[in-house]
Amino acid sequence: MSFEPVLRELKFRNLTVKNRIFRSSISGRFDNYDGSGNQARINWETKFARGGCGAIITSFVPVSVRGRVVPGYATIDADDKIPFWRAVGAAVHEHGCKFILQLSHSGRQQDIAGVENQYRKALSSTGKVESFHGLLSQAMTKEEIRRTVDDFAEGARRAREAGLDGIELHSSHGYLFTQFFSSAINDRKDEYGGSLENRARFAREVVQAIRRKVGDDFHLQVKISGQDWNNAVFFWEPKGDGLPESTQICKWMVEDGVDAIHISTGNMFPHPRLPMGPFPAREGVKWYDTMLSSGLHTHRVYSFFRNPLKRPIFNYLWERTQERHDRIEGANLADCKKIRDAVRPIAPDVPVICTGGFQTGRVIAEAIERGDCDAVSIARPLIANNDMVKYFERGEELPDKLKCTYCNKCLINILENPLACYELSRFDNDYDRMIAQAMTVYQPKPFN
Questions:
Q1: Judging by DSSP bridges, how do beta strands 375-378 and 352-355 pair with one another?
Q2: How far is CA 236 from CA 225, 291, 317, in A?
Q3: Is 106 in contact with 69 (CB distance < 8 Å)?
Q4: 77-92 b/e with 16+ CB inside 10 Å = b?
């Protein structure tokens, strides 16, 4: 079988990628507590470059310590971080793969505050308590907004000085940009709240500040949720924004100078529709306890994991809005196509990338050929098969026994363990073999 559309190079205004497979933003807590990086991160990113991906989008890279989701992720909050990111980029480039740094800020979605943030509320568009975990926050002052805009611009400058190929703004999944975009979250009464134009103001100011800082010839893309699905778990919550609002935001982003749009879904992470599939509640009993001090409702969530009688209730609430299992792959394509069709007339040279459970070459090729998207980004199925692209290059699909099962065990293990595939059936029920695979991120070792 030929997967030529998947393997075709993709040209952006300021970047050319060798194929249409992007490793989406995902990483383990491999880096140092203080935000510096180490060899494990280099090993991790190199896995996917060696496996044939056209480009890698890094994990959540905070532009400030105040905006990190959890400790153990490398930051880009100071110039002393530039040499490390230069080393990561160089290792990835050896395999002909591009490296795009995802600039991010947690806002109120700060899962594990860390010692620096433990005794202060997270910054957000709002002071409302987040509904799922009960995470606390405080509404940013205009001065804090201005400083955060500058933090993003400086992060972009550092990425460029590190010789990386571009940046992505993480404007989806409930992090800070989403907290401004979403009518279900943003309750401000000033020029950053109310109308959609006001709620998009912060993100637009960041894009404009980045362009002033790095110029027009450095790749800049934006990741955005096509729909909020704010009431996906708790049906009594407001629904939040839908396609009309996100489509308009994408148009504004293009006007302000972004080179690509990356479509996802949901206004928190994890979300019933991202990553789709069951929530591994049984696994959650083992690893979720690390979050018990993070929010007002985390004990409530944990009690549903621990209690066999409550667990079916949680599973029902979590899965009630999901598509059927056989539609997990490409579940965001319909939203992506509508946004692409709306943006293309005003910006034909701005490609649109779609994420959402992709792992079948035929599905990806057909989506590109139909014009649903220009490329796809993949996270968990690539954790299961780092060399997925090599199969496509040989004209093969992944064998069924190797495919990602969408079990999401990798998701819950990330809280305390190395990020890897933890579906034992994929390793012929050989536990030692599974753990050995997980530990490959520490090879080569930083010290011999």
A1: parallel
A2: 21, 25, 12
A3: yes
A4: beeebbebbbbbbebb
Give CATH for domain 4-442.
3.20.20.70
Whole-model pTM?
A: 0.96
302 is catalytic: no
> Catalytic pick from 175, 391, 406, 422?
175
Distances (CA, A) of 198 to 103, 201, 272: 22, 5, 28
How many CA atoms lie within 13 Å of 84's alpha carbon, on the beta-carbon side? 23
Alpha helices (H) along 18-174: 39-50, 82-93, 142-161
- Tell me the two tokens of residue 263: 């479509």
CA distance linking residue 373 with residue 262, whole number of Å:
10
Q: What is the DSSP letter of 274?
A: B
- In 283-392, DSSP assigns E strands to 352-355, 375-378
Q: Which 3 state secondary structure label does DSSP give 56?
A: strand
Could you tell me how far CA 38 lies from the centroid of its own chain?
21
> What does the block give as tokens for 286?
């083992």
Query: How far are the Cα atoms of 202, 331, 340 from residue 334, in angstroms, in the given order?
Result: 27, 7, 10
pLDDT tens track, the chain, 448 positions: 789 999 999 999 999 999 999 999 998 898 999 999 999 999 999 999 999 999 999 999 999 999 999 999 999 999 999 999 999 999 999 999 999 999 999 999 999 999 999 989 999 999 999 999 999 999 999 999 999 999 999 999 999 999 999 999 999 999 999 999 999 999 999 999 999 999 999 999 999 999 999 999 999 999 999 999 999 999 899 999 999 999 999 999 999 999 999 999 999 999 998 898 889 998 888 889 999 999 999 999 999 999 999 999 999 999 888 865 456 899 999 999 999 999 999 999 999 999 999 999 999 999 999 999 999 999 999 999 999 999 999 999 999 999 999 999 999 998 899 999 999 999 999 999 999 999 999 999 877 6
**Cis peptide bond prior to 62, omega within 30° of 0:** no
User: φ, ψ for residue 248 (rounded to 5)?
Assistant: -65, -40
Please report, for the chain, the start and end positions of each structural domain, with discontinuous segments joined by +.
4-442
